[in-house]
Inverse folding.
């Protein structure tokens, strides 16, 4: 058990002064007292304003090591699909040891930036030749070991991937390491669920990769199987990321991806639809009404040339969203939120477009919404500093010049929109400090192993 005092903190009810956090031995918040008046001279004090830690709802950890490798023009028109071929080539060099150290490096970077939990959308299951490892869950277990070492909370989302395109077309050789029948994937989920059942820092769900990679039958089998192992656990799905995907879906079934999904299965609050970039207004409003979370990754969506999510329509309809860093071309929740708004500004040639009404703070509104949506997407009690929730919090650096003179929601506006220097000083996950004064205890050791790994991979 421990305690922490903060002069200011963002609570579910809003900004509060003189806040005392009582942290239970299991890493949850036992009590949160605003306007505390007891003698607190012996209680550790946060160096600056305290915020809930940000959930990062969408990650492909291994891609952190390939950031920057696909930025050279090809002989023809470059797109998501040409980037995908670069990614397939990079995968041919990765084994379990490489994947674990890359994930550890990424998770340290996430923690330092203020992410305290991650949704790992994990599709790299098998050996180089496509055969399962002796332990079929080997790659998932390695990623989860990296999370444990770094201290970040994790929702592991083993990916159901069986086909190369709509209608059950055959997968290509670059996809052979991803492929599983639902029965095989569910055995991986069963193994992970048994391993992590008593670990409050983990959750296990499922991620049907996309409508390209499943059939209606395998999609239903995967969801039904998950419910038999971990009822109510999260379901994540890439959808409508590229216009070609929408066109191919129309050619296959006569419906658009989001339209087809809502006609076929019950989509609700446990679902996260990742990207959902290309929707009609009707689809956008249906997604908002469903309670599902839109998983937005603006820096990756920009890097891949995906397009711009219909955020204005979605938020006006009451939709929930969270943010992720996806391919990790950037590892910064601040940058994701900034570009979520900036994309709308460039599209509409206006300002403050995602504010929730006149006089409302854009940065604060986006930050708070991403906390809530991200927590829901990861299926864990995080994203808010309230009794019973995990003690996941971050402390802003009082020496960050961009935050001088700012308080309350204006502080969050400055956090999101002012400057490029990381303003996070300290990060706590589950009651344990993982970052102090901007440093992670293992960052040097992990970075050295990561550098050695990249030196080998880039030979």
């Amino acid at each position: 058990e421990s305690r922490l005092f903060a002069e200011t903190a963002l609570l579910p009810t809003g900004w509060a002064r003189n806040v005392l956090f009582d942290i239970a031995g299991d890493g949850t918040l036992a009590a949160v007292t605003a306007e505390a008046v007891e003698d607190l001279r012996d209680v550790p004090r946060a160096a600056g304003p305290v915020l809930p830690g940000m959930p990062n709802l969408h990650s492909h950890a291994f891609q952190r090591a390939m950031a920057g490798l696909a930025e050279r023009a090809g002989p023809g028109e470059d797109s998501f699909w040409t980037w995908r071929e670069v990614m397939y080539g990079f995968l041919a060099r990765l084994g379990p040891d490489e994947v674990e150290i890359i994930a550890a490096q990424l998770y340290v970077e996430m923690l330092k930036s203020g992410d305290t939990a991650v949704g790992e959308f994990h599709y790299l299951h098998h050996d180089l030749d496509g055969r399962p490892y002796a332990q079929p869950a080997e790659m998932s277990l390695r990623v989860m070991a990296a999370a444990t070492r770094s201290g970040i909370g994790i929702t592991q989302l083993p990916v159901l991937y069986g086909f190369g395109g709509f209608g059950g077309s055959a997968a290509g050789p670059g996809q052979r390491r991803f492929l599983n029948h639902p029965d095989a994937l569910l055995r991986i989920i069963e193994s992970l669920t048994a391993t992590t059942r008593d670990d409050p820092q983990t959750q296990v769900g499922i991620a049907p990769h996309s409508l390209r990679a499943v059939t209606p039958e395998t999609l239903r089998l995967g969801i039904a199987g998950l419910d038999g192992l971990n009822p109510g656990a999260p379901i994540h799905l890439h959808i409508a990321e590229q216009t070609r995907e929408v066109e191919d879906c129309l050619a296959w079934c006569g419906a658009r991806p989001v339209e087809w999904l809502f006609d076929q299965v019950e989509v609700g609050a446990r679902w996260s639809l990742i990207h959902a970039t290309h929707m009609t207004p009707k689809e956008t409003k249906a997604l908002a009404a469903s309670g599902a979370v839109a998983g937005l990754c603006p820096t990756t969506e920009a890097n891949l040339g995906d397009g711009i999510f219909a955020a204005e329509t979605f938020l006006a309809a009451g939709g929930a969203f969270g943010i992720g860093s996806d391919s990790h071309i950037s590892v910064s929740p601040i940058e994701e939120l900034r570009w979520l708004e900036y994309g709308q500004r460039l599209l509409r040639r206006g300002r403050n477009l995602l504010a929730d009404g006149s006089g409302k703070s854009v940065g604060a509104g986006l930050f708070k919404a991403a906390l809530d949506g991200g927590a829901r997407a990861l299926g864990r009690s995080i994203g808010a500093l309230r009794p019973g929730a995990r003690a996941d919090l971050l402390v802003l650096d009082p020496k960050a010049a961009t935050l001088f003179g700012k308080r309350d929601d204006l502080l969050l506006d400055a956090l999101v929109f002012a400057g490029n220097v990381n303003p996070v000083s300290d990060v706590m996950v589950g009651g344990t400090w993982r970052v102090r004064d901007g440093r992670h205890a293992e960052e040097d050791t992990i970075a050295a192993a990561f550098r050695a790994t990249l030196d080998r991979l880039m030979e």
Notes: The first strand starts at residue 2 and ends at 11.
